[in-house]
Specification:
This protein is an all-alpha fold. It contains 5 helices and no strands.
């Protein structure tokens, strides 16, 4: 890949990451207000961004925000996010006891 293509790819992945983090933050706090653990709200927000909700209700936005070209990069970030989520769930269960 040439430097311009790498920069364009990186910008799109960072925008995707910012959207995912913002949605997770908002729904995490909303879940807490409803008496749910932070992680439950974050997971619900993630489900809304996926093909089950956003892809079904607004497929053009889904394709624009999450094009297939960035799939591998997002999979790597998703694995990292899953590790951090499991750490958060474990930490909250330790501090709750």
């Amino acid at each position: 890949m040439n430097p311009v293509a790498i920069e364009s790819h990186l910008k799109l992945v960072l925008v995707q990451w910012m959207v995912i983090m913002a949605v997770a933050w908002v729904f995490g706090r909303l879940g807490q207000r409803l008496g749910q653990p932070l992680a439950v709200g974050e997971i619900f927000g993630g489900l809304l961004l996926g093909p089950s909700a956003l892809g079904l209700l607004w497929p053009d936005a889904m394709r624009a925000l999450f094009p297939s070209e960035t799939g591998q990069s997002l999979q790597l970030l998703a694995k990292l996010g899953l590790i951090l989520l499991m750490f958060q769930v474990g930490w909250s269960s330790i501090s709750a006891t």
